[in-house]
Write the structure tokens for this entry.
Amino acid sequence: MIVLRSIPLLAFPTLVYALIAIPMSVEEVRATLDAPFFTMALPSGDVWTPEWGHVLTAASAILLMVEVVKSARAATSSLIENALALLLFTLQLIVFLLVGGFGTTDFAAIMTMTLIDFMAGAMVMIYSSRRDVQYNVQH
């Protein structure tokens, strides 16, 4: 069970993006991400049309919130998860820079959220370890 809790949740939108991008050309990836997810008329008269890329980014933001909440607990899995988040970010950065179809703003946003996840986890670990250290002052 610890292994499942240790997997960074942002690996899932990364996997979804990869399933979209790998079999397609750069132009097809962009067209897929720019395709309307749904259309809704608003009472103001405006028409709201979120695109698939927006939905993927919004889902990633929700997962980032869950990751930040998860990082607040002190557990062995938190350390493993934080290391895996750094590994995931490193892989995302390499893919972003070197693989066609991954150089989009949508993927960069997911990658940035993974970096924020790692940094938040590291900061929580540093803060909680400071509270756990006891100083013995001798007079």
